[in-house]
Amino acid sequence: MSAESVQESEFDVVIVGAGFAGMYMLHRLRGMGLTARVFEQGDGVGGTWYWNRYPGARCDAESLAYSYSFDAELEQQWQWSERYATQPEILRYAEHVADRHDLYRDIRFEQTVTSAAFDQESGRWRVSTADGLEATGCFLVMATGCLSVPQLPDIAGLDSFSGNRYQASLWPRNGVDFSGQRVGVIGTGSSAIQAIPVIAQQAAHLSVFQRSPNFSVPAHNGKLDQDWVDAFKKNYREHRDFHKRALSSGFGDLEIEPRDRTPQHESGHELSEAEFDALCEEYWQTGGARFMSVVGDALSDEQINARVARFVHNKIRQLVDDSKTADALCPTDHPIGTKRICVDTGYYETYNRTNVALVNLRETPIERITSTGVQLSDRHVELDTLVLATGFDAMTGAMKNIDVRNGAGLRLNEAWSEGPKAYLGLMPAGFDNLFLITGPGSPSVLSNMLVSIEQHVDFIADVLEYMGERQSQRISADPDAQEQWVAHVNEVANETLFPKGGSWYLGANVPGKPRVFMPYAGGVGVYREVCDDVANNDYRGFKFA
Ligand code: FAD
Ligand code: NAP
Hints:
Blueprint: H1 3-8, E1 10-16, H2 20-31, E2 36-39, H3 48-51, H4 72-77, H5 87-100, E3 107-108, E4 113-119, E5 124-129, E6 134-142, E7 164-167, E8 182-186, H6 190-202, E9 205-210, E10 216-218, H7 226-234, H8 236-245, H9 273-286, H10 302-319, H11 323-329, E11 342-344, H12 347-350, E12 356-360, E13 366-369, E14 373-376, E15 380-382, E16 385-388, H13 397-400, E17 403-405, H14 412-415, E18 434-436, H15 449-469, E19 475-477, H16 479-494, H17 524-536, E20 542-544
Parallel strand pairs: 1-2, 1-6, 2-3, 4-17, 6-18, 7-16, 8-9, 8-16, 9-12, 10-11
Antiparallel strand pairs: 4-5, 5-6, 13-14, 14-15, 19-20
Helix pairs in contact: 2-15, 10-11, 15-17
The structure holds flavin-adenine dinucleotide and NADP nicotinamide-adenine-dinucleotide phosphate (NAP).
């Protein structure tokens, strides 16, 4: 290897992933005068928004909140066209940020990281890609995403289908024309619920294969009014501050005056049946995922949760003409909100179309996929095109795919064999100089992810600065501090109804995956306070060498 290429492969930090997390991490490190190499398996930036190009894909947190806050000039200049931006618009935004901050030159695209090993002696991570590129870094940052590894369904005969088959999270770049096609969609999570109304408008016929119904609330999406946006942007800093300090997810809201969005009523028990329904109606009419903030105990009190669920069941029955279909669409197997609530545009109404049929797999399970369609227990459904919207190996899937080894040769997968553990969701004990962005044990997928990503990136940048000032080269998480944090994460989860959801938050959608509630349910504001307190106390729970 020439002296030049050795030089080229040694960095202060190696980052895996060029979604919003990897991009901002790179920008922060550059600002500190550190060198970094990013490896990304796709051929562009944007992560989630690069891969998930299915029809109808858009964010479910308002665009004005689901965007970076670190660049105050950019947030004033960038014009979001809709309340919830579409995938192409969010991808354009990511590309614009990469251009604006000149990020491309440090990113190597189409490079899938396959292994990362920490060398005790040199104190460096050696990171290798499938194509044989190597880089070493004093620190390794996993910005690999919580929802970046598609999960294929374990259905017999899947590969025998001779028509077109698409996966929502690996959608073809040039789109798909469904005109005249008999289409089948397997799955009814957030991805499917966004795609189904759009596909239905184009396809000759659409069959939706539903195993478990999900709760969905209306997005009430629409074009943003320029005068309104201008007024909102005058208070952008204050809005951002409320998102960051929020008691819950940091989703923000659509009011010009920034204010704390803590639910007005701590408990639904304070309200009569009529008052409760009126409040649910108000939140339903406002739209969006903050529906679950209707009262403070909607996600912790079973009785109150059941009242919210009943309200939504009634809505579904009003929106869907056929009562049998409506009944099948009403979820009764999990408390509302304990699986990520979906946000839709015309989802339930789509079942009133004559070209759409709901196939209830609880009544007629799939036996196998055939070359021409789906064989159910009682009939065969002929299809030209099959769409899989069957989710992700969430939160740990991307790291599981990389052979990560600490200085003693221990693999992260072994260390996590009974479930992922990381101090503050930021660093697994025993894995020196390895940082995770939005890792298990942090608010991550229960939050507006841009808020959580920025907070983690800033925390990592600050701790590296702290280490630089002390000429410290090594950071590790204290195993006791990690145990205490993991216990706290479980304790907080057990105070809520989340563990009853049987969702991907728990790994329940992946056969054999340990059942552990992975995200921190204490809210982004509380979590930030904990991290700030840790930082202000000489990074309590971390050890330096
Ligand atoms: P990602 O965007 O997932 O980026 C990770 C990157 O790492 C990917 O580009 C991947 O290719 C790369 N990578 C992974 N493994 C490797 C490897 N071994 N080698 C090289 N590269 C690798 N969150 C919200 O808060 N609001 C929303 O509205 C919202 N909508 C969503 C819609 C969809 C369809 C999905 C799937 C998720 C949504 N999310 C939403 C969550 C979303 O993932 C985050 O908001 C955010 O985009 C995550 O950014 P990230 O950089 O952490 O991860
Ligand atoms: P998901 O919520 O995990 O949904 C997967 C769906 O596939 C479920 O309905 C599941 O049914 C079904 N499924 C899986 N295997 C099956 C099988 N063998 N047979 C029949 N059905 C099967 O995945 P997702 O929709 O991709 O969403 C994942 C997450 O990404 C969301 O929760 C959200 O956080 C994020 N997301 C957000 C948006 C947004 O609105 N901005 C859009 C898309 C995704 P069961 O429930 O029965 O397992």
